[in-house]
Amino acid sequence: MLDCTPKEIKERTGGVINPAKTCQPIGAMYAALGIHRCLPHSHGSQGCCSYHRMHLTRHFRDPIMASTSSFTEGASVFGGGANLKTAIKNVFAIYNPDIMAVHTTCLSETIGDDLPTIIRTAEIPEGKLVIHTNTPSYQGSHVTGFSNMTKSMVNYLSEATLESKKEQVNIIPGFVNPGDMREIKRIVNTMGIKFIMFPDTSGVVDSPMTGEYVMYPRGGTRLADLKDTGNSKVTIALGSYASADAAGQLERKCGVPAVILKTPIGIKATDQLLMALRSQFAVEIPYELEEERGQLVDIMTDTHFHFHGKKVAIFGDPDIVLAMTEFVLSLGMQPIHVLTGTPATGGAIGTMVGNFEVEVQELLQEAGITGKVKAGGDLFELHQWIKNEKVDLLIGNTYGKYIARAEDLPFVRMGFPILDRSVHSYLPVVGYKGAMRLLEMISNALLERADRDARDEDFELVM
Fold first, then answer.
1. What's the confidence (pLDDT) of residue 2?
2. What one-character DSSP code corresponds to residue 348?
């Protein structure tokens, strides 16, 4: 496995070893799937599109549909304008989506294809739409791609058509699983607030088995609702890296104020979401949510000795890692190694994102903990950190299993992608209910290790 990773850390000026991220088009494709009856389109080679579809299919265990401009040598030299025009014509004729969402790849970005002009001169059937976003793979990460596509939804579709704003909220959930989107919607519904979530992949990549193939499942944000986002009273963006850009653009274009919050993982971040909704719409927090919060506090109190003082390493997408760091601190754990592969700036010019390293360090300092924090890092470096200062637990996506095996660490899978386990995309980690699930996952990982390592005389029935 990774047993030969050296303990000595040397300064690296270039090159990435074992990246902790993937490329922009995957995030753009996932965001596009969150529009009802939308077919994502990869403007590049067939290989790029196949990889992105495969990666998403393996994570969600659901077939991912997308089309491609199918670049050959000619398009690679002379540009892919003709390919895209042909693709648009064929896609609407054969697959009949309501909207195509085009994203670029390294190849088309390097050529410099002018997508707005190509789309304007393409044959688009009446009543159909084509939107696009630029997603060069050599910049940013899949989180950046998700952000860029979500921002393009605002650029192309959002409209402010009313003199006064509606009593409704836009929710931009960030790069999370459909199970998380369902939980966020349940929380807002429980509070009795009208909302528009975009993008919304619930009912798309977690659609039920019916025995009949449906290319466009019932889920996803409706086009009418996307247009109506410009009439909402406020936008709540969950996660500054994945969601803030679109919220900012909606504020500039349609005058909808933006509230930027953390991804609601853990008790504090979920509290902040509920308080933001309560202050904007003057509604009371229903007992159902108060009860869930009380149950979570009870569980945290009952099990605090499982977590207190345990050292943990966390890696993954910046919004998820930031919120998860805050949560494990609330459990009394010590996140001494915190890393994301997404660059500190988000990787795109003009993006509205926070400063990952500063925000995490502020959380650690407030808790009196010293730890290593890095944006734009890789798993080789994380492994070296762990070799130099051992941890009790590793939290991250599937790619962390190699480090966990090499260093004999308990491992909790969380984030994107998870390729070696199933069901995860259906079950939330957000909200109070999600925090309870995370508590069980973390506690079980630590207790199973304690059982495995216990001597016969210390092998306890009650822990």
1. 66
2. S
Closest CA to 243 of 195, 188, 173, 141: 173
Nearest to 270 by CA among 324, 333, 307: 324
Closest listed residue to residue 195, CA positions, set 248, 273, 291: 273
102 sits in which H/E element: strand 99-104
Sequence letter at residue 242:
A
Which of 253, 263, 211, 254 minimizes the C-alpha distance to 231?
254
Using an 8 Å Cβ cutoff, are 407 and 4 in contact?
no
Q: What amino acid occupies position 211?
A: G
Segment 321-342, tens digit of pLDDT: 999 999 999 999 999 999 999 9
Strand duo 129-133 + 393-396: pairing:
unpaired
Whole-number Å distance between alpha carbons of 33 and 39: 7
Q: Average of pLDDT values for 422-435?
A: 97
pTM of the model: 0.95
pLDDT at residue number 8? 87
Closest CA to 66 of 26, 106, 111: 26
Token representation of residue 422: 């199933």
Reference 42, options 107, 92, 96, 110; nearest CA is 107
- For 239: left if phi > 0, alpha if psi spans -120 to 50, otherwise beta; the answer is left
Contact 171, 184 (CB under 8 A): yes
